[in-house]
Design brief:
alpha+beta; Pnp Oxidase, Chain A; 5 helices; 9 strands; 28% helix; binds flavin mononucleotide
Length: 199
C-alpha cells in the first residue's frame, strides 16, 4: 500500500521513469509489456500487448511489423492508446497520443542488436496473415537461414519502430478502500497541465 499521493507538480516523463524503475525491480517478467490499442477503419478498437523498448521526452518506442493488423491500422489512424498495469506495485499508467514510424537508422540499430534467431523470425513472419500450418512458418525460417548469415542479415523494410508521442498521460495508484489516486497530465502549448481525477 502506498500513502504518498502523486504531486501535481511532477513532470510526467520523469514520473514514468520512476515508476518504470520500481516496476522493473518488482515485476516477475516483462515490466515493459504494455497494451496498445488502435482504432480500425470501422471505428472499432483492437488491443494487443507489445514491448516498450525505449522512451524519452519525445515519446514511447515499440517495434513491430508494419504489415500486421496493428501496423495497417496505425497507417490509417495514427491515434493510439497505451496502458501499463504493474500488478506488483499496484500502479497503472495510461498514455494517449499519436504513433509514427521512427527514423530507419534507429530501427536498424535495434534490429541489429537482436539475436540472429529473432532477426530471422522478423523476416519469416508475415505477422497477422493467415498461417495454414506451423510447418509453413518453419519452412520459411529455414529459407531465410539459407539466404542470410549472422553478418548479412539486415532489417526488413516492413519491420519498424514506432514512437507514440503522448498528449495525455494518466498515473493511477492503488489507495485504501478503492479511493485510488489519479493524476492526469495533458499536453498544452504551455507544457503539461495536471489535475486530479476522482477514482
Ligand atoms: C508479452 C508480449 C510481448 C509482445 N511484444 C510484441 C512486440 O514488441 N511487438 C509485436 O509486434 N508483437 C508483440 N507481441 C505480440 C502481439 O501481442 C500481437 O500478437 C502481434 O503483434 C500481432 O498483433 P496484431 O495482429 O494486432 O498486429 C507480444 C505479445 C506478448 C504477450
Amino acid at each position: 500500500m502506498n500513502n504518498n499521493l502523486i504531486s501535481l507538480s511532477e513532470e510526467p516523463i520523469s514520473l514514468f521513469e520512476k515508476w518504470y524503475a520500481q516496476a522493473t525491480k518488482a515485476e516477475i517478467n516483462d515490466p515493459n509489456a504494455m497494451n496498445l490499442s488502435t482504432v480500425c477503419e470501422n471505428n472499432k478498437p483492437s488491443s494487443r500487448i507489445v514491448l516498450l523498448k525505449s522512451f524519452n521526452n519525445h515519446g514511447f518506442i515499440f517495434y513491430t511489423n508494419s504489415s500486421s493488423r496493428k501496423g495497417k491500422t496505425i497507417n490509417n489512424n495514427k491515434f493510439v492508446s497505451l496502458n501499463f498495469h504493474w500488478k506488483s506495485i499496484l500502479k497503472q499508467v495510461r498514455i494517449e497520443g499519436s504513433a509514427s514510424i521512427i527514423e530507419e537508422s534507429i530501427s536498424d540499430e535495434y534490429f541489429n542488436s537482436r539475436p540472429f534467431e529473432s532477426r530471422v523470425g522478423a523476416w519469416a513472419s508475415s505477422q497477422s496473415s493467415f498461417l495454414k500450418s506451423r510447418s509453413e512458418l518453419l519452412k520459411k525460417i529455414d529459407e531465410i537461414k539459407i539466404k542470410f548469415t549472422k553478418d548479412t542479415i539486415y532489417r526488413p523494410k516492413f519491420w519498424n519502430g514506432y514512437i507514440v508521442k503522448p498528449d495525455l498521460i494518466e498515473f493511477w495508484q492503488d489507495m485504501p478502500y478503492r479511493l485510488h489516486d489519479r493524476v492526469e497530465f495533458k499536453k498544452t502549448k504551455k507544457g503539461w497541465e495536471s489535475r486530479n481525477l476522482y477514482p
